[in-house]
Amino acid sequence: MDFEQFFADRIGGLHREGRYRIFADLERQAGAFPIAKNYRNGSEQDVTVWCSNDYLGMGQHPAVIEAMVAAARKCGAGAGGTRNISGTNHYHVLLERELARWTKKEAALIFTSGYVSNQTTLGTLGNQIPNLHIYSDALNHNSMIEGIRHSKAVKHIFRHNDVAHLDQLMSEADPAAPKMVAFESVYSMDGDIAPMHDLCTVAEKHGAMTYCDEVHAVGMYGDCGSGVAERDGVGDRITILQGTLAKAVGVIGGYIAGSAQMVDFVRSFGPGFIFSSALPPPVAAAALASIKYLCEHNEIRVRHQERAATLKRRLRGLGIPVAPSVSHIVPVIVGDASLCKQASDELLDHYKIYVQPINYPTVPKGTERLRITPGPLHDDAMMDHLVDALATVWHSLGIRKAA
């Protein structure tokens, strides 16, 4: 087999379909976010970033930076090993304590990423609990899907946010079989939010555990910012809360929180935890500082929600099709991979606005979009510029407007 030709043919297919992914070569500027330097075609220019998952700008907050720098000076750059073999630093212990306090759970466990925390926890529970049936929302993240798939547990997929379908599927299974319902709180591509009260009610009816991925809600919902479970008052009804430190918290890493026994079980049996080197202590220290700040400053969440609501209102007023998001995410629907890429390129080349096109397989074909994430640091002038640019690009490319 000509392996190189195989690789070239498959990549060529992505180019022809307009789905080939080009990474923006960005250099974030601490203290200037959402402005970043973009290195492109042999030159550099300042651009405004409108698609970052650093939703609140905490990755460049002075308190977070100072905590990271101070920990690096104190402890060095890396952890030096896995958590079991010399890699547990005191900052890891402090961060896990803070995460447990933040989520109002008995214990927490940190991982190298949110992807790893999902894959490891779901994979471990599904593999270790005999005959476990896992009920997974149809739009769950790839990391959840991979964890469930590799667990070899009995898998059921219920229609997205469809509580009645979940109840039907669970009613058809052996009542004695152990069960778990896995879902997200905020779905990152459409911006909708799970009916968490109702999902918990169905799970409780069937004696099931609940597993909630809060990665796109951590830091942004609830008076203290721990997520939608806090905002909606259902945290005590959810068995396992999973989240990330890489989005609104502003650094990198993932975590789970729940009972002390469950956390200890994953710590003791989860290969993705056992065999991975620990997070660098400066990262843990930065995450700790960020969480403490977010818990004490609800005004940043109020501003964040206002920015998202304002942008959605203004775009809809121009007939630009925004999906019915009820969260901070603003999905602007293009519906064609090539047009989506062209729109992104025009915004970057002509208006110095960076919004990454989102195409299949991240979203279904025909729903290609620009996923915009306004934040508290996007001021009115930036928003005026974005809205005007989108209106012009929509017209110049002939992209369909909302009905």
Which percent bin holds the helix content?
40-55%
DSSP helical segment count: 15
Distance between the termini: 50 Å
- Secondary-structure content class: alpha/beta
User: What fraction of residues sit in β-strands?
Assistant: 15-25%
- Low-confidence parts: none
- Biggest pleated-sheet summary: 7 strands, mixed
N-to-C order of helices and strands: HEEEHHHEHEHEHEHEHEEHHHHEHEEEH
Overall average residue pLDDT: 96
Question: Key features?
Answer:
four-stranded mixed beta sheet, 15 helices, about 45% helix
How would you characterize the overall build of this protein?
The protein is globular. About 45% of the residues lie in helices and about 15% in strands. A 7-stranded mixed beta sheet has the order 4-10-9-8-7-5-6, with helices on both faces. Strands 1-2-3-12 form a 4-stranded mixed beta sheet, with helices on one face. A 3-stranded antiparallel beta sheet has the order 11-14-13. Helix 4 (about 90-105) packs parallel to helix 12 (about 280-295), helix 5 (about 115-130) packs parallel to helix 6 (about 140-150) and helix 14 packs across helix 15. The chain is an alpha/beta fold and about 400 residues long. The chain has 15 helices and 14 strands.
